[in-house]
Design a protein that fits this description.
The protein has 196 residues and is mainly alpha-helical. It contains nine helices and no strands. The radius of gyration is 20 Å and the shape is elongated.
């Protein structure tokens, strides 16, 4: 009995050391897939429970892609359970906008630049959240989680060419949506100047 307890503690320690460094990345993907912070937390918890349950049989690939693949399966199972493709919750509503940079990383920005940076960051998060699911997932795995095309292909269960195509389409959709958002925000200012 004592040997079983020691073995279980050792397994927990190894799992914690291997998996916990990737918790933020797993949560970030869950947040984009589930589009709701509470559902994302539940998905991450289920992901880590499944990973711990199967940790004895884990032999690779790298821990981060393995966890993200489990998370993706958890999210897809939840969508299937709910009987719909996506959860219609607005991602940007719950997202904290302020991101404080340490003083030693960059010179002090003016208050105007800080506001513009926060608005741009919120706009980008919103535009990514509005992408259709396979494109949103691919862009988050590549640009946020910094995974290779091969790792994304393994997680998504698609060929590398499909990953590259989805990534190109996602970037094009984001660029187009960004330009449309910029045009929409510049028109009211122009119209108000003309009226004066």
């Amino acid at each position: 009995m004592a040997n079983d307890a020691v073995a279980e503690q050792e397994k927990m320690r190894r799992f914690r050391d291997a998996a916990l460094p990737h918790l933020d990345d797993v949560y970030t993907l869950a947040r984009y897939l589930m589009r709701n912070p509470t559902d994302a937390e539940d998905a991450v918890q289920e992901c880590y429970l499944r990973a711990l349950r199967h940790f004895d049989s884990y032999r690779g690939p790298a821990m981060k892609p393995w966890l993200l693949a489990i998370l993706r399966n958890v999210c897809n199972a939840e969508f299937a359970r709910r009987g719909k493709e996506e959860v219609p919750t607005d991602f940007a509503q719950d997202e904290a906008v302020a991101e404080d940079m340490p003083m030693w990383q960059e010179p002090q920005a003016s208050p105007e630049k800080l506001i513009l940076r926060q608005q741009d960051s919120a706009t980008i998060r919103q535009l990514v959240a509005e992408l259709p699911e396979p494109f949103r997932e691919t862009i988050v795995l590549r640009e946020v989680n910094d995974l290779s095309y091969q790792e994304i292909a393994e997680i998504a269960g698609v060929p590398v060419g499909t990953v590259m195509s989805r990534l190109a389409r996602a970037r094009a959709m984001l660029r187009s949506a960004w330009n449309a958002a910029e045009t929409a925000t510049s028109r009211p200012a122009t119209a108000s100047r003309v009226m004066q």
